[in-house]
Amino acid sequence: MSPAIGLALDRVEGRAKVSGTARYTAELVLPGLVHAVLVGARIPSGRVIGIDTGKAERAEGLIAVLSHLNLPPIPGKPRLLPSLVGLAAPGESFFPMQDEVVHYAGQPVAIVVADTIERAEHAASLLRIDFAELPAHTVLDQVRDQAYEPQRIFGGMLPGRNSRGDVEAGLAQAEHRIDQTYAFSPNHHNPIEPSATTVVWDDVDRLTVYDSTQGPTATQMTVSHLLGLPPGQIKVISEYVGGSFGSKAMIWPHVTLAALAAREVRRPVRLALNREQMFHSCGHREEQEQRITIGARADGRLTALRHHKLSLTSPFDDWAEPSLQSPGIFYDCANYEGVYHLARGNTITPTFMRAPGEASGMFALECAMDELAELVDIDPVELRLRNLAESDPSTGNPWSSSGLRECYQRAAELFGWDGRDRAPGTRRDGQWLIGTGMAGAAYPHAVPPNQQRARARLYADGSAVVEAGVSEFGTGVTTAMRQVAADGLGLPVDRVRFVGGSSDLPNITAAVGSAGTGAVSAAVHLAVTELRTQLIARAVADQRSPLHGADPGTVTVEDGRMRLHDRAEVGETYAEMLARGMTPDVEALGVWTPPPLTTPYGMHTFGAQFAEVAVDADLGLVRVRRMVGVFAPGRVLNRKTAHSQLMGGMLWGMSQALLEATLMDPRTGRWANPSFGDYLIPVNADAPDVVVETIEVTDTVVNPLGVKGVGEIGIVGAAAAIANAVHHATGRRIRKLPISLEDLL
User: Fold this and answer.
1) Beta strands at 496-499 and 464-467: parallel, antiparallel or unpaired
2) What SS3 class is residue 646?
């Protein structure tokens, strides 16, 4: 039987999704279910000074209107902590409807509950809420003079400053310098399924929460903390999630508000955000600027790198996506300084968004490196190879695995980079200016700080079930874990079932930061390995077994049959052994303890991106004609789902480069384009030819199977490759995202 790991298998949940039989949180039908609608503040700063519920209370079907005037205070104070930690993970250290203060537009100030969603929305429209408005700051230009350097960012997980060597001395040694600033518009996640929560109180102190979340345990721990209930009294179910990209990684206030509303009305409550509410309720990629100063010798070797970031955060949290972390270790540079600067504004706390920090930080760095290559007159690929970091420059530790050099070489070969004319504006195709560009990619391998668990059970008929509390939100984890389990047990894949999506199952940290596949596969692998060991031990100890007395180390399993390695005819199936002993099932728990943060290795995933663009010489219209990406994500569990994730990331990088921007109206403090009609995203007609390959590198450090994950790395470097190609086509260097028609006219 050939190994299951690495096969390009179809997704097991695919049929349920395309046939409509998969049930998402907002589609659940429960007895007595009623509907809640959030009412958000119309102002970005001030106070609620009056709530007139008279008209709403006369509306048909109304059950309750809840606000800070009648909603009991929550016992727990929210603390911002990334969901990877495995504890309570509120999206911000603020919980609404505890008082009358308004911090940002869209902040929930009331909940309307009615017997149907239409009646709830109608009653909400009849509420009259009066505000006393105060001056607000909603864009970076309004507060840049108030910027400060935080001690720590990212929920306290990362320092606000990193440095090594002497940057000023390095710049003094440089024969060439690049000093540029790059600007980034805010972005929003926009999964197909908006966030939704359905809550049922099973008793006065027990509840079941159906939530669209990346981590059932994260939801459980957050609701537990905020409501002051033991986690064991809260069950979270999240079987199907219609996309997230980070918007459902943290647990936003609407989840706990749904629980509070259900407790007040004593009926099951569904609270589903609409599309506009997604723009001000679930975080975003923040507005930011990055300034990069590079010093280099005449041969292009770096002598210094200074990378500073300024971004807008909320009134209560020091949040910045970690844009400086991967750029700080990507090149062999002895003198480095990375500093975050924050300015407070009237906004919800920003949050994770696919490749949070790397997508923006590597854009700035790789565009600056393209400028350096032009200044030094060296091929961009060769410049990167000359500065390749063979070990982690921040610590001197070796990489757990790299493969970056091979990624550059293979991607350049696939793209046809050799012989490229480096002079901008030299290629045309009729009206179109043709350009090519490239960039490197890096994404840190995130390691959860706590143990990860999975359970494996083999039944008497020879079939197996593996369980872990992880959601399937589009990554294909359900399929890949069947492959891991099948390999470990020596069973055909179709004899293995994977069950997830519930906090009652063994605990797995929220699948964020490309850490999900590595964490789940490690626990699953250890569970099935332990189970197989138990089963072989039973066989060799059983006097009635053909394997009795054999050395367990000489027993292998293939197609569910245990046999001697050198005498294949001697053996028996799992089912035969269990039936003989009248044993209905056998189970084992797999517990993976991740490597400590002090592990003496640098742990990153690397890749290379190439792009060709065509720019209309008169209209400035940019069309991406083809993209090539080669990545080294460790061991690939399922080639089809991995390819899908990497291609999706690359296409999002194209979207980041040319389309996506959320526009803030500083007069009202509200997002001006909170809909699919106004927030630009690509359609199939925008998609170019995309070539994706992986370089498999062996990694014995990150986890037992050497899996690094592919969810984020595909977007990193894509926007920079496209921007560099636009420059090559036109001679215009655009240092902002997205690149617009106006920038090129």
Assistant:
1) parallel
2) helix
Given a cut of 70, whether residue 1 has pLDDT beyond it is no
Using DSSP's 3-state secondary structure scheme, residue 354 falls into: coil
Query: Counting Cβ atoms within 10 Å, is residue 568 exposed (0-12), middle (13-18) or buried (19+)?
Result: exposed
Let me know how long the chain is: 745
User: What phi and psi values does residue 126 have, to the nearest 5 degrees?
Assistant: -90, -10
Check: CB of residue 6 under 8 Å from CB of residue 639: yes
Place 709 in a pLDDT band, splitting at 50, 70 and 90. confident
Q: pLDDT of 297-319, one tens digit each?
A: 999 999 999 999 999 999 999 99
**Can you tell me the distance from the alpha carbon of 104 to that of 23, in angstroms, rounded to the nearest whole number?**
33
Residue percentage of the chain with pLDDT more than 70 = 100
Q: CA 6, CA 217: separation in Å to the nearest integer?
A: 29
Which backbone phi and psi does 248 adopt, to 5 degrees?
-110, 15
Mean pLDDT over all residues of the chain?
Answer: 95
Measured from the Cβ of residue 521, the count of other Cβ atoms closer than 10 Å reads: 29
- Which of these is catalytic: 13, 569, 712, 742? 712
**Residue 206: its H or E element:** strand 206-211
Helical H segments across 191-296, by residue range: 216-227, 253-265, 275-281
Burial 196-209 (b: 16+ CB within 10 A, else e): bbbbbbeeeeebbb
Query: Do residues 521 and 637 touch, judged by C-beta distance below 8 A?
Result: yes
Q: How far apart are CA 599 and CA 10, in angstroms?
A: 36
Distance CA 111, CA 625 (A): 48
Mean of pLDDT values over 545-556: 95
d(CA 723, CA 359): 13
Residue 472: active-site member = no
Q: What amino acid occupies position 453?
A: R
Q: Are 326 and 292 in contact (CB under 8 A)?
A: no
